[in-house]
Amino acid sequence: MDAMRIKGGVRLQGEVCVSGAKNACLPMFAATLLTDQKCVIKNVPDLSDVRFMAEIVASLGAKVSNPKPNVWEIEAKNISSRAPYDLVRKMRASICLLGPLSARMKRAEVSMPGGCVIGARPIDLHIKGLKALNCAIETEGGYLKVDARRMKGANIFLGGRFGSTVTGTANILMASVLASGTTIIENAACEPEIADLCKMLAKMGAIIDGIGSPTLEITGVPKLGGAEHTVLPDRIEAGTWIIATLATRGKVLIKGAVKKDLGALIDILESAGANIQIKSKSDIFVDGEGLKLKPVEAVTMPHPGFPTDLQAQLTTLMTQVSGISIITERIYPERFMHVSELGRMGADIVREGPSAIIRGKTPLSGAPIMASDLRASAALLIAALCAKGETFIQRIYHLDRGYESIDKKLALLGAKVERISDSDLPSF
Hints:
The chain is α/β, with parallel strands linked by helices and 428 residues long. The chain is built from 14 helices and 24 strands. Helix 1 runs parallel beside helix 2 and helix 11 runs parallel beside helix 12. The longest helix is centred in the middle third of the chain and has 13 residues. About 1% of the residues have low confidence. Pfam families: EPSP_synthase (PF00275).
C-alpha cells in the first residue's frame, strides 16, 4: 500500500490540466449496457474507480478494452443481469448498473451497496423510481432483484431529505430511455455530470428533453445504438486546484476549469478576496500571491449550489485565513472525517452539528496523518502543502480513486511530493 510524503511551504506555480470527470464516466460505463453495439468513451481518467467499473462491466459479459490512454471501448452483446457482491462491494457507484440492466434485460440482480465513511447514502429513491416505472422489486440475500418485464413510463418525483439524488437520477434516467411511453423525472439532479450522461444517451438514440434542468422528459425508444463520447472535465478536480493554489499563495493556470460548472465555488472565493481570472470557457488563472483572504460562510447544496465534494478542501483553506469561517454540510452531515486529522496538524476547528467552525489563521505543521475518504484526502494534501516540515499521508488509495496522477501533476507545479510504500514510512 502506498503513502505520500510532502514537504510543505512551496507555492504552486505553472499550468495543470484537469482530467475527465470521474462522476460522469462511471454511469457512462453503465450506460453502455443499454445497447449491444460498441461504445467508445474518451477523456476517461486513469483511476482505480474506473478500473473497478470496467471490471464489473466485463464480469457481466461485455467486451471491455482500453486501447490507448484515457480511451475505453465497451461492447455489451451478451450480458448477464446479475452483478455479484464480490465486485460491487468495491464501489458504491456500481449501484447505477440497476437501471441499465433492468431496461435492457428486463430483470436485474445487483448486490446492495454497503456503508460509507461519510455517512448514510440510502438508495430508497432509486427503488422508488423503479417502482414508479412499474417494476417489481424484492430484496433477498443482500441483493436487489428487479422484475422489469412490465416497465413503462411514469411521472416520478425524485426529491429526498437532502435534495435531489445524482446517482438515483442517473439510474432512473437510464432505465426510462428503453421504457415504453413517456417518463417525466421531477427534481432531477442538475449536476453537469448528469447533463453529460444525457448527451451520451442522446448520441445512442435516446430522446431526452430538459437536459441540465430539474425536469427531464424521456420518450422511450425500442433500442439504442453505439456512440462515441468525450467526458467533460472534472469540476471537482478543477475546484481542488483552485483551492490548493490559493492555500499555497501560488499562481496556476488551470486548463479544463469550466466557469459555468464552478459558479458557486468561484462566488464564495471571490467574496473572500480571491483573484480568479477567467481566461476562456475552460481555462482559469488563479493568482494567490500576496492575498489577504477573508473568512467565509458556506453551505453545501445540490448543483448549482456549493458542492459537498469541495467542502473538505475549502475547510483546509479557511484554516489559513484570519477570522472565523463557518462551513455547513447539508448533503452528508457526517462528512467531517478530515477535521480530526487537520487538528493534528494544528488547525482550530470545532464541530457544531452539521457545521464546522474554523478559527484561522493557524500555522500547520507536518505530521503523520491518515486519509479516510476521497475528498478528505484532498483536504489533507492541501494542508500538507501549506504545512511547515514533512507530512506523511497514509491510505492514499483514496486519492487514486478520484485524482489522476495527482502526485505527478503536483510535481510539475513545483511541489515536493513523493509516493512511497508503507514499508518506507519512518517510525513516528
